[in-house]
Amino acid sequence: MEWQQIEYFIAVAKSQHMTNAAKQLSVTQPALSRSISTLEKEVGVELFERRGRNLALNRYGQLFLERAQNALAEIEKAKQEIANQINPWSGVLSLCFPHILGAELFPTMLGAFRERYADIRFELNQCSLDELTARILGNDCDFGITTLESANDAFHWQLIGKSELYVAVPLGHPWADKSSIRLEELQGEAYVGLKPSCALSYTVEALLAGTGIEPDTLYRADELDMVAGLVAAGFGVSLLPKTLGIRSYPMAWIPVNDPACALTVGVVWKRDRRLTPVSEVFLDFVRARYQAGASE
What we know:
Elements: H1 3-15, H2 18-25, H3 29-43, E1 48-51, E2 54-57, H4 59-86, E3 92-97, H5 105-116, E4 121-126, H6 129-137, E5 143-147, E6 155-170, E7 181-182, E8 190-194, H7 200-210, E9 216-221, H8 224-232, E10 238-241, E11 251-258, E12 262-270, H9 277-290, E13 294-295
Parallel strand pairs: 3-4, 3-5, 7-11, 8-9
Antiparallel strand pairs: 1-2, 5-12, 6-10, 6-11, 6-12, 6-13
Helix pairs in contact: 1-2, 1-3, 1-4
């Protein structure tokens, strides 16, 4: 059953005349008659009584008309709701982000955006990296916040900021008073790492691999809070950003001077997806604000 058949049926039911309905619809009378006949075959019963040149709905036609009009009204309502959500000036944007990446850079970006586009609303979804990927690929979220290293070829990526990475050690560790450290010093050191479900793990693994470092990874956790807790308790050291959520843990933070270590955070979106008008507005803003760090 095609939606056009429903529209044709409603037009004939209202005009009660095939020729007049055909004129209103700008179709030929034979084409309209075939459409109604096909519809009646699909529902398994005639919907009209022929009375000379006029048509009158029978009891089956009355039943079908009521449901058809309700369906049409619901479709029009859905179309309006979608139009409202994708409106470039007052629509809704869905964004997903891992816990670690939503603490500082993300709110700063959104705050700047809302200063310019106060009527655009956001649906914010905190999730794991795997969930972020699935939501964007499934078109459940418009954009995500993640690292360059964790974004694959299915996405575009745009830098929005960087955070320095430090070697975090327990307060009683021999390195606690160091003013700086080389990454190679982590070789063989007891280390607390992150599971691949955390976007930061891809950045850290790339840094370690790039310098040929293999620390003695004793534990891997899903979130920074757990890593920070294990480091503070003396289970090892770790490479971490000094984010708000873990600054309060009793640890020493040592800057890395060779090589420079940073967490790169950016906006990702599905590469082959047609963007909505409100998504285009957001993306234009992000590109204009952070164009120097574009990477697609």
